[in-house]
Amino acid sequence: MHILFLSDNFPPEVNAPASRTFEHCREWVKAGHQVTVITCAPNFPKGCVFAGYKNKLWQREEMDGIRVIRVWSYITANEGFLRRTIDYVSYMVSAILAAPFVRKADLVIGTSPQFFTACAAYTVSTCKCIPFVFEIRDLWPDSIKAVGAMKDGFLLRCLEWLERFLYRKADRIITVTNSFKNNLIIRGIDSSKIEVITNGVDTTRFQPCEKDPGLVARLGLEGKFVAGYIGTHGMAHALGILLEAAKKLQQRSETGFIHFLFLGDGAKKKELMNRAEDLHLRNVVFVDSVPKDEVVRYWSLLDVSIIHLRKTDLFTTVIPSKLFECMGMGVPVLHGVSGESAAIVKRENIGIIFKPENTDQLCNALNELAHNGQLYKELRLNCLGGAKKYDRRMLAQRMLAILDDTAQRTKHGVRMAQADK
User: What is the secondary structure of 93-143 as a DSSP string?
Assistant: First the structure.
């Protein structure tokens, strides 16, 4: 089977969609299938093209057996709604124009959150007469409303219409949470064409290791209990409460035993750094995004990982992908997200849940894990056990079976896409 995958994020970018796409495609190649990915020049999140790449009309490379085609797009930093929309649209157009040069694909996958990639996939599927698989990693445009980036109006209604159109036209829909699937069913989408493949962890990379002594010394973390946030510093994450917690803990203890490490970039990074300076925080360290091969070194520094999203109903339906990396590394979680992801934390007993945007509960949970060695050891062991249930290789094989079934149905004249209603 020849799988054509459209994604505007791909390694060497290190965000969740890039990792998921690469790790799935790598396993499909290992299983004997041909995979072609159409993406753009790596630039997320700063909007600067990575060293060794250029923003050209066409570039080709091979990564672990995956054929990668990089097309031109308008590049901007991960901030500003209008500029990012132009970025998305430009990639959509370039991907559609590049697709005819990919021969004999059996199906095409378009991944969200933004829908313009899925629009490109639908167009390609129509032109090539192959199935269209829509992978939904976020409920967009609902997430735009949730963070206040767009208000109700004509443009939002257009996006909502486009959302429903793509759901109907997809031959198969793959969501990353059960909550997303239930949301689509409530909207009238046929449940028989919706499958759930959660995010997971590459257990060959993310596994327990000793703290990197060089990084410990360079970042001044000797003798510290390190609470880390690794990921995008965006509007959805409300990371200001971590700084509030750092301030309270700094006031309580002159020793600065508990230290906060922020690794990553995003629309709110500069604002957070300025805020930390205004608060005169001595127990906070900010580190820019690092190459994929370096990420595990920084994970090794963490005693606990903080996962947090804004307090809104929409985010009760998401499962942050870093939750699974915590499991793989054996790092207990302080989880400030309600809903389906909190249920995983509770079921696997891998951390402490606190209410989103509740600084006092976060401080209490930090103190509990920093000073309760027995509890900490128990949670750490549970993390390692839980990781086995979310091994990316196993999840990739499950998704491959769905793709194969979709392709076979089409060969036999059975299409699962709903007719226009």
Answer: HHHHHHGGGS-S-SEEEEE-SSTHHHHHHHHHHHHHT--EEEEESS-TTHH
Question: Is 195 in the same domain as 228?
Answer: no
* Integer angstrom CA distances of residue 184 from 17, 41, 124, 163: 21, 32, 23, 11
Which secondary structure element, helix H or strand E, spans residue 289, and what is its range? none
> What domain range is 150 assigned to?
2-200+391-411
Give just the sign of the alpha carbon dihedral 147, 232, 28, 401. negative
Question: Are the C-beta atoms of residues 75 and 46 closer than 8 Å to each other?
Answer: no
Which residues on adjacent β-strands are paired with residue 108?
4, 132
Average pLDDT over residues 308-315: 90
Instruction: Looking at the structure, tell me whether residues 63 and 162 fall in a common domain.
Output: yes
Angle between helices 373-387 and 340-348 (to 10 degrees): 110
**Which CATH number is 153's domain given?**
3.40.50.2000
**Is residue 45 domain-shared with residue 175, that is, in the same domain?**
yes
> Could you read off the pLDDT of 320-352 as tens digits, one per residue?
999 999 999 999 999 999 999 999 999 999 999
Residues 275, 196 share a domain? no
In a domain, 206, yes or no: no
Whether the pTM exceeds 0.85: the reply is: yes
Domain match, 160 and 130 both: yes
Torsion of CA 229, 232, 236, 239, to 10 degrees: 30
Residue corresponding to tokens 């929309």: 85
